[in-house]
Every structure is written in C-alpha cells, then in structure tokens.
Design a protein that fits this description.
The chain is of the alpha/beta class. It is built from 11 helices and 12 strands. Bound molecules: nicotinamide-adenine-dinucleotide. One of its GO terms (molecular function) is dTDP-glucose 4,6-dehydratase activity.
C-alpha cells in the first residue's frame, strides 16, 4: 500500500510517518499494522514544518519527500497519482495566528483540502483520511460532544477546519469518494513547534523565563498524547466506515491553570514564573469529546497516562535543545523584524 501523508513534516504528521515506518525508539507494537510499501510526504515546510522531525526515518528507502504546497493543483495532481491512501494533516494550525490573519487558514485549510479531494477523485484514491479537530464543535459547558453534534466553530482556524470537514464529507456524498474524518482533542508530545502551550511553557521554563497564562486560567482542554492520536488515526484509516466521523480524545480534562501547575512542577519552577495576560479573543471555554464511537467500533482507547506522558515530554524537550532552540531563535527574530 502506498500512502501519501500531507503535512508529514509537522508535529502530528511526522509522528504518523515515524509510526508507519516503525522508527527506532518508537512504540510500534501497539499500532495497527499498515505495512506501507511506500510513504510520500508532501509538505510546504512552512514555519512549523521541519525536516528534523523526519530524521529518525530519513534513511528508510520507503520514504519519499516532496516539498510542495497543497494549493498547487498541478503538483498535487502529479503527487497524488499512484497512491492508495491519502492521510491529510497539512494545515495552518495555530488559533492565535488565525486571529492575527485568517487568509492562509482559508487558502490552505479549505482550498488546499479541495485541491487534494479533486486529485483523489481523478486518480481513484481508495481512501482519504481527513485529520480534523474537536474545535469545530465550538465550546461546551457540560457534557461531551458526539460526532453528530452540530458544528459551531468560533475562531478563524476552527471555522476553516469545519469548512474542510464539510467539503470532505460532501465529496463522499456527491462523488462517492471513500473518506473518513477524525476529530481529536489537544495533542502534546515531542516535536511540537514551541508556540503551542505545552512546548512553549516547557521551553520557556527550561530557559529560566516566564510563561503567559491567558485570562483566569479556567479554560478546559482534553489532552491527548500524539502517539495515541496517531494510533487512533491508523485504526480509522484501516477499519473506519466510509463517510463517517470519529472523535479521538484522551479523556484527561485539565484547566489551563491545572496544566500550568503540572508543567511548573515537572520543570522545578514556581508560580512566580507565571505572568497573567489578557484572554485570547473569542477563547473557547471548554472542549470535551465523547469517544464511545471509536472505542466501540474500532477498539480504540488512549494508552499514555497523562502524568507519565507529560513527564516524558518535558524530558524530551530537556534533552533535545538542539531541536527547539533554533526554532525559538528564528521566531524571536521574525517577531522583532
Ligand atoms: N496540534 C493539535 O493539538 C491538533 C489537534 C487537533 C487537530 N489537529 C490537526 O492536525 C493536523 C496537524 O497539526 P499539527 O499540530 O501537526 O500542525 P503543524 O503546524 O505542526 O504541522 C502542519 C504541517 O503542514 C505543513 N503545511 C502547512 N501549510 C501547507 C501547505 N499549504 N501545503 C503543504 N504543507 C503545508 C507545514 O509545513 C507543517 O509541516 C492539522 O490538520 C490540525 O488541524 C491538531
């Protein structure tokens, strides 16, 4: 089976590629065997794409890397040919950036997805796996979202992801394309660009700096280790029913304040390092996923305990300064430019 992974040089996409190719040190034992004969990564290498994320599998002869943009229809058409499955991660993924400027979110997340769908139709791709987010559901005060919950996105990022989800499902209903959509909660783990809360806080703390806590710190997120997310996607790729949506959650809800407390403890720092900042515009209060469907249909259950996963993640950033220091330096230079 030949698999095309878009956004495979990003945080989650690269974990999927490392998992598919059985990267040394990865825990492939608990992953559904997809046994790809070839894996092509199509990635534009934006600020968050990084070839270093693929270093553990760089010498695998099954891996082919194509630097390119999913909005480039001619290139996408050429690359999609000959692949059995597309697993689509490529996206603009940071809410704060979407508040500062929504245009690349619409062009990459919506138009880029449509470009891929058209190529998949033309080439008879046998399965299109669309990786989405729980943020498309909006914010929920109590209870948890099932897959049939209405979409009510609040940020330009989540609105663009919701639009792409609907397009993917429309290509199934209209054209009969075999698609599956996954919606997952907040991911954490190694190789996450240090702008998202966990790697940002951990790297700031390891550098002796402070961390910015939004508003009253009471926003609740469900945390999912990236390895569990990718196991869930692999199950959906292999056994999910065409035209269906599957939530993938971690079952571990924390307020941002609780998460901050855990990260401070793991880094040996105190609350004097926390700087309260004005809340994010339109900040969703709580996300919570019901994962009954994927658990019952596909046998999914998260396996990484949050406490252990956070400790291992902090250790990874502590031991891999060479990975994140240049990224922070480049971001700081860009912000100052
Ligand atoms: N990080 C999370 O917690 C989370 C949660 C739910 C869903 N998701 C979804 O998972 C997917 C991956 O997220 P991530 O956290 O790994 O993001 P990321 O920002 O780390 O990676 C995105 C990758 O896509 C590439 N890319 C961006 N625009 C592109 C374009 N126009 N053409 C080709 N490549 C392009 C980037 O270079 C990068 O390698 C996204 O679709 C995101 O919406 C992420």
């Amino acid at each position: 089976m030949r698999i095309l992974v878009t956004g495979g040089a990003g945080f989650i996409g690269s974990e999927y590629v490392r998992m598919l190719l059985g990267a040394p040190g990865g825990s492939a034992a608990d992953v559904p065997a997809l046994d790809p004969t070839g894996v092509t990564v199509l990635d534009a290498l934006t600020y968050s794409g990084n070839m270093a994320n693929l270093a553990p599998v760089a010498d695998d002869p099954r891996l082919r890397f194509v630097r390119g943009d999913i909005r480039d229809a001619a290139l996408v058409d050429e690359v999609v040919a000959g692949h059995d499955v597309i697993v689509h991660f490529a996206a603009e993924s940071h809410v704060d950036r979407s508040i500062a400027g929504a245009a690349p979110f619409v062009t990459t997340n919506v138009v880029g997805t449509q470009t891929l769908l058209d190529a998949a139709l033309r080439h008879g791709t046998s399965r299109f796996v669309h990786v989405s987010t729980d943020e498309v559901y909006g914010s929920i005060e109590t209870g948890s979202w099932t897959e049939s919950w209405p979409l009510s996105p609040n940020s330009p990022y989540s609105a663009s992801k919701a639009a792409s989800d609907l397009l993917v499902l429309a290509y199934h209903r209209t054209h009969g394309l075999d698609v599956v959509v996954t919606r997952c909660s907040n991911n954490y783990g190694p190789y996450q660009f240090p702008e998202k809360v966990i790697p940002l806080f951990v790297t700031n703390l390891l550098d002796g700096g402070t961390v910015p806590l939004y508003g009253d710190g009471g926003n609740v997120r469900d945390w999912l280790h990236v390895h569990d997310h990718c196991r869930g996607i692999a199950l959906v790729q292999q056994k999910g029913r065409a035209g269906e949506v599957y939530n993938i959650g971690g079952g571990t809800e924390l307020t941002n304040k609780e998460l901050t407390g855990r990260l401070l403890e793991a880094c040996g720092a105190g609350w004097d390092r926390v700087v309260p900042v004005a809340d994010r515009k339109g900040h969703d209060r709580r996300y919570s996923l019901d994962i009954t469907k994927i658990s019952q249909e596909l046998g999914y259950a998260p396996s990484v305990d949050l406490e252990q996963g956070l400790a291992e993640t902090v250790r990874w950033y502590r031991e891999n300064r060479a990975w994140w220091e240049p990224l922070k330096t480049a971001s700081a230079a860009q912000a100052g430019a």
